[in-house]
Amino acid sequence: MKKKVLTVDDSRTIRNMLLVTLNNAGFDTIQAEDGVEGLEVLEECNPDVIVTDINMPRLDGFGFIEGVRQNERYRAIPILVLTTESDAEKKNRAREAGATGWIVKPFDPSKLIAAIERVTA
Amino acid sequence: MDMNEIKEIFFQECEEQLAELESGLLRLNDGDTDPETVNAVFRAVHSIKGGAGAFGLDDLVSFAHVFETTLDCVRSNKLEASPDLLKVMLRSADVLADLTAASRDGGKVETSRTSGLVAELEAYAKGQPRPAAGAPVAANPDPAASTPAPADDNGFEPVPFSFDGFDDDEAVGEGRSVFTVRFKPRSDLYAKGNEAVLLIRDLAKIGELQVHCQVDQLPSIDLLDPEGAYFSWLIRVETDKDEEAIRQAFEFAEWDAEIEITAGADDEAFADPDASAADQPMAPVPFDLNLLDDLPVVSDEAAASEPAMAEAALAPANLPLAAKAIAAEVEKKEATVAAVSAAPQTIRVDLDRVDRLINLVGELVINQAMLAQSVVENESGSSSAINLGLEELQQLTREIQDSVMAIRAQPVKPVFQRMGRIVREIADMTNKQVRLVTEGENTEVDKTVIDKIAEPLTHMIRNAVDHGLETPEKRTAAGKNAEGVLRLSAKHRSGRIVIEIADDGAGIDRDRVRFKAIENGLITPDSNLSDEEIDNLIFHPGFSTADKISDISGRGVGMDVVKRSIQALGGRISITSRPGKGSVFTMSLPLTLAVLDGMVVTVANQTLVVPLTAIVETLQPEKKDIHSFGPSQRLIAIRETFCPLVDVGNILNFRSDLADPVAGVALLVESEGGGQRALMVDAIQGQRQVVIKSLEANYTNVPGIAAATILGDGRVALILDVDAVVIASRGQPLSSEMALAATG
Description:
The structure holds 2 protein chains of 2 kinds. By secondary structure, chain A is an alpha/beta fold. In chain A, 45% of the residues lie in helices and 19% in strands. Chain A has helices spanning 12-24, 35-45, 61-69, 88-97, 109-119, and strands at residues 4-8, 28-32, 49-52, 79-83, 101-104. In chain A, helix 2 (35-45) packs parallel to helix 3. The longest helix of chain A has 13 residues, at 12-24. In chain A, 61% of the residues are buried. By secondary structure, chain B is α+β, with helices and mostly antiparallel strands. Chain B folds into 5 domains: 3-146, Four Helix Bundle (Hemerythrin (Met), subunit A) (Up-down Bundle), CATH 1.20.120.160; 177-296, Alpha-Beta Plaits (2-Layer Sandwich); 351-404, no CATH class; 412-590, Heat Shock Protein 90 (2-Layer Sandwich); 595-741, CATH 2.40.50.180. Chain B is built from 23 helices and 22 strands. In chain B, the strands form 5 sheets. A 6-stranded mixed beta sheet of chain B has the order 14-18-19-17-16-15. Chain B has a 5-stranded mixed beta sheet with strand order 6-8-9-11-10. In chain B, strands 20-12-13-22-21 form a 5-stranded mixed beta sheet. The relative contact order of chain B is 0.05. Chains A and B meet through helix 1, helix 2, helix 3, helix 4 and strand 5 of A and helix 1, helix 2, helix 8, helix 12 and helix 13 of B.
């Protein structure tokens, strides 16, 4: 069975890149545009792994991760943070919020797939 | 979808982000202190940087990075968004737009422009005072070098993995070393969705492993915390990589586990990893990696987390509460967002599709008109049912037409926003202080019109700053605020869009204009002109009051060209000016270029359409008003002035002889340069709205003809290019350069 990935990113460019990369790698991809939509979509799609951006309108990545981790059904899902944030402080905040791992942009398909493989069975 | 298409999307998105960036900065400049505005501005730059990085657009990335860093300081309240800083940021936004354009179109942005701003932005970010204006720019002219690429300072690199290391040799191969890893996760590791066995599987990518699981910490079932972490692993790694590579494999776990990496094999530990372990039923056994790859996760930890889920489902009452809390927070944030901007729901549609629809609706309108006409001709119109049906059809078609046109309607905002930048640039070049105030930027107009007003508008704005506004010194001396105000506004007025550019400068220097006009031979020294007539002289071809051609206005484009291009759109432009108070340029344009109100006329048995906007009045010439002038020129006397008579049929080569003016109708039109001409046509058929069909798709540009249309009776009628015909009437041949096609 195909693994299902939920991506949460407000940039159309990055969403398209994620879609192409993940589909090419044989993943089933569901996309949301911000944290609020991500939490909504989560309930319906039951993903195997989540890839999320940090800087987003409405609900940012930190809030989204906290939301997932407090959801009884989905709290054990691996969450990868996809962001250009380079300073340690933000990385730490993402970890505190409950991120499983992270991928640093610039977007590199092989990095993304390697990170997903590292956290999914 | 391939990378090129995504790149296309990226540049589209950049446009939006740049607009967002600029409007956000301008709001901040106007004293907006909403943190969401700063956030939006930050996100715009951040998003551009992210996409640019993916496409390897290094110049863009490094500049965006510096910009972003400074914005981040503002976002986190470490730096105040002072007017000076906002000025730097607005200029940075302009440079960012240029860098984006350069990346898209393959140009290059002068390093001198970026390096100066990079230095200023960095100075702000470091909390240092900005280098004084004119101070030498930071020693390093290359922004890329002075800015660490974002990937460099993040501290984590992609995990290098290589399959070279996979070797069946039992002995340690050449260039390979052995490490011993003790890995003891804490429960947090599992809570964050990590899985020990997956991390170990990942480690296997860099070398060959022997894995021992130590289970001696596992309590009896009644003491077991289902979410606890009780196992640890002892791993022998044989790899050609270094210790750092191993550490990176555990990168996601380093916070939530004890990880100890030692060089060399700890054979003793493997032989007897734990004194008590020997007694354990689950004594360390070599772990077959192939099993790890094939089997689903069956680690003891996974087994342990199963009950964890069950328990979670049963017990913790605080979880739903926490979920509620976060939901409330989300709602709060949503509410804030709603207050900031109730973003309308939109979809993106390819412009071609809309154009196709508009074309089809155009056909529908024509078809409906033809149907109505044939019903009338067959006199079956006596049936009230048919009449009623026809009437309804007509109403529906008109509504459909209006709705379809509304799809293509766009606010003028993007064009207005671009003007902000033009103003800043020219204010810098001329050392003037200018504040641009825009009004009615949400006024909508057809996309085809928007595309075409940017250029004339740009020129008028340049002109207003360069010629209209005075220098700060002069303004102060005249008792005005040193900062000039340029007001750009748009509004709908009787089916047209009216755009005004008002400055509070010195107004038109009528003595100087008059002097120049006399010097250029446009008027004679004894001409008696009203103030308005003098003001309008600036639209005369070749007129320029600038004593020396400046960098800004002297680009070979005068106000006459502006006027011509606006007229080509079916628009008009006028100026009013008050000495010492300023000038107002007003241009009015049709809301669309897809339909046009025209007068249908007959010329030499041909049906032509003359754009209604060009016609000042129509009149029936009388013999006593016609005067010959030279061999082939004729003039018509209209209220004590003489106006050249233009025989349209002759100009268009419909006939070789000149028509008898008395038998026809004269259309008084205003043409380029403000002069009036009387166009002779044979008869007027009526007025109607026509759908413009471009000729250029099928023919080349036809001189004297702007476009074509199909009338209600199915006949094709040509739409007259009034300006081109007038120019041709001066004895210049009709050439395609002269013909200003009204459609594009």
